[in-house]
Design a protein that fits this description.
CATH class of the largest domain: Alpha Beta
Number of domains: 2
Strand content: 5-15%
Number of helices: 15
Shape: globular
CATH architecture of the largest domain: 3-Layer(aba) Sandwich
Number of strands: 12
Structural class: alpha/beta
């Protein structure tokens, strides 16, 4: 593998070559350009996309053909989807919000809800939920508006769709050397219809809001860029309580928030360098609140060895579990909600499962590959170890996610190191 220290520099260098205009710019860069560089670094390949004259001409012709197809086929389909989605949202959105609190927050995931509602400012915040995708949310819907405002949303569908689609097409053509047009369109088109409708309703809510602050758990995705843009339009302070780890490189469209609460001091320093016009803060009390930690959590020690598999790359999870099975110890698995016990039934050995997340996090020896869970374990009084048994995980921990290279997180690179480390912890029960 190439020196991983060059990876983030290469990503930043590539980022500087693009001029994205849409709310989708960061995701296009993250999903299509960054994986290309990642593949180069992991394969000892120093190449870049073919920039020969023939390839450039081919890409230009393909881009022109895609533009024609997008404008004549995909755009009309998108507009129809937006209108239908908007009508459905108008019917489903019942009731009305109160706009007289200090802050407002639009929630799309329960994970963001937990992190933000644990903060002191939550008592002064209006919370609203995307009920079409957050089925069991207990609170007002983002699609709840007065009837006149809903009519205005419907009337705005055409102009908003044209503008959004135009910027999206521009950004896709900017990265034409990196993409498969049809796969990209199949992925983004339904997401665009949702985001456009969401934008129309957010804009109306913020025009009615009487407070000062827009809170969000979104960092750099299309919803984050939308919220940041609208916060400026409506002259609101923007504050990010992030869901998920910060990336260790610059995003072409930046990140959400005039104030951004980071998960580590290292991430705060890095982001302050990458985005000098924004305020990046590391506050341990805020992070403890994000993770739902009390001071009592750091007392005592249970000494169970708990592995937290990732929701993706199941084969790598299996390799880590096989290695744990080779050691003379009992261990436990706490599965991601998107994972399944059936993925590991044949290799579990002396392992068993912990169902309760809090029980798994507190005062144990916690192993994970490259997850936010490692930081949560630290704040819950556990010993956190990142199991870096393959090149990709090493790259992610040492380059992509600065908060995971925190000194409080141990890094284990092979089975012998893991065995030695666990034997050195006298509390482990073998």
């Amino acid at each position: 593998m190439r020196e991983s220290s060059s990876f983030s520099a290469d990503v930043n260098s590539l980022c500087n070559t693009f001029n994205f205009k849409s709310d989708y710019g960061n995701e296009l860069f993250l999903y299509y350009c960054v994986p290309f560089l990642e593949k180069m670094h992991l394969s000892d390949n120093t190449g870049s996309p073919d920039k020969s004259t023939f390839k450039n001409i081919t890409n230009l012709i393909a881009g022109m053909a895609y533009s024609l197809l997008f404008l004549t086929v995909f755009l009309p389909c998108l507009f129809i989807a937006v209108v239908l989605f908007c009508v459905f949202a108008c019917v489903k959105g019942k009731g009305q919000l109160s706009y007289d609190k200090k802050a407002i927050c639009f929630l799309r995931t329960f994970a963001s809800q937990d992190k933000i509602q644990n903060q002191a400012i939550s008592k002064e915040t209006v919370f609203t939920y995307d009920h079409l995708f957050l089925k069991n949310a207990n609170g007002p819907s983002v699609y709840s508006l007065p009837m006149l405002s809903k009519v205005r949303c419907l009337l705005g569908t055409l102009a908003t769709t044209l503008l959004d689609a135009g910027y999206f097409l521009h950004d896709v053509l900017v990265i034409r050397n990196y993409v498969d047009y049809l796969k990209l369109t199949r992925f983004f088109l339904p997401r665009m219809s949702h985001k456009i409708v969401y934008q129309l309703f957010l804009d109306r809510h913020l025009s009615l809001f009487k407070g000062e602050i827009l809170l969000s758990g979104n960092k750099e995705d299309r919803f984050a860029m939308l919220e940041y843009r609208l916060s400026k339009k409506h002259m609101l302070q923007s504050v990010c309580i992030p869901h998920g780890l910060e990336y260790g490189f610059r995003m072409p469209r930046g990140v959400f928030g005039e104030t951004f609460y980071c998960l580590s001091a290292k991430a705060s320093k890095l982001y302050s360098d990458l985005y000098p016009d924004q305020n990046f803060v590391f506050d341990e009390e805020v992070v403890e609140s994000m993770f739902g930690v009390s001071r009592e959590d750091s007392k005592g020690f249970n000494a169970k060895v708990v592995f937290f598999p990732e929701s993706r790359d199941i084969d790598i999870n299996r390799e880590v579990i096989k290695n744990l099975s080779r050691l003379d110890l009992d261990f436990y698995l706490k599965l991601h909600p998107a994972d399944s016990e059936s993925n590991y039934a044949d290799i579990l050995g002396r392992g068993s499962y912990i169902k309760d997340l809090k029980q798994a996090l507190k005062k144990n020896i916690c192993l994970a590959r490259r997850s936010t869970i490692l930081l949560e374990c630290v704040y819950h009084g556990s010993v956190a170890c990142s199991t870096l048994f393959n090149k990709k995980d090493v790259l992610y921990v040492e380059e992509l996610f600065p908060s995971l290279s925190d000194d409080k997180i141990n890094r284990i690179y092979n089975l012998n190191e893991l065995d030695t480390f666990l034997k050195g912890l006298n509390s482990v029960q073998r």
